[in-house]
Write a structure and sequence with these properties.
6 helices; 73% helix; mainly alpha
């Protein structure tokens, strides 16, 4: 705070509230010099740039969450169709290729980008002190483990090992939906 003696009340050096700057009369300008206002402008500009970066990080995070969730919904369905074939069917090779491409092109890159952008958002927002983020991270860890388990099951199917039934795979297909619902509630409602 800077106190001026020419009738002005206390004026904060770079303004107050939501990015608006308080500019005083010409006598205050003369007393403080233009470097004060240049510094305030640079500070304001940095806040604007960081806010824009935050929005881009958030948009990227949501986009890649959608890709990741779509892949997590598709892969168990692929497994069901693959597993319903006879073990010696010619289409097995097609399903193995589809599953591998889904993992390689959509699921693994999305998982990595979701984690990187999500952690960047959490650090930038200072959210590690909040319980809802800890709960969300726990659910995302479970979902990441589910992803890795599904990738392992894809390797098993490629090797001809069919450990689960179609019914079990259909039930496993519900895991991403339940996890997504919990995560959305935690992020939107922030219950704790």
């Amino acid at each position: 705070m800077i106190a001026a003696k020419d009738g002005l009340q206390t004026i904060s050096p770079c303004g107050s509230g939501n990015g608006r700057k308080i500019f005083a009369v010409a006598s205050f300008w003369r007393k403080t010099g233009t470097h004060f206002f240049a510094r305030c402008f640079i500070q304001w500009l940095m806040v604007q740039v960081l806010a824009m970066i935050y929005l881009w990080l958030k948009a990227g995070h949501v986009i890649f969450v959608v890709f990741w969730m779509a892949g997590l919904f598709m892969l168990p369905r692929f497994f069901v169709y693959h597993q319903e074939l006879a073990p010696d069917a010619a289409e097995n090779a097609l399903w193995i290729d589809r599953e591998a491409r889904l993992l390689k092109i959509i699921l693994w890159p999305s998982l990595i980008v979701v984690w990187v952008l999500g952690l960047a958002l959490a650090v930038g927002g200072g959210w590690f002190a909040f319980g809802w983020l800890h709960a969300k991270l726990a659910v995302v860890l479970v979902l990441s483990g589910y992803h890795m388990w599904m990738a392992g099951y894809a390797r098993d199917l490629a090797a001809g090992r069919r450990k689960l039934t179609g019914r079990q795979l259909r039930l496993a297909n519900e895991v991403p939906g339940v996890a997504a619902a919990i995560i959305i509630i935690l992020v939107i409602v922030k219950p704790f």
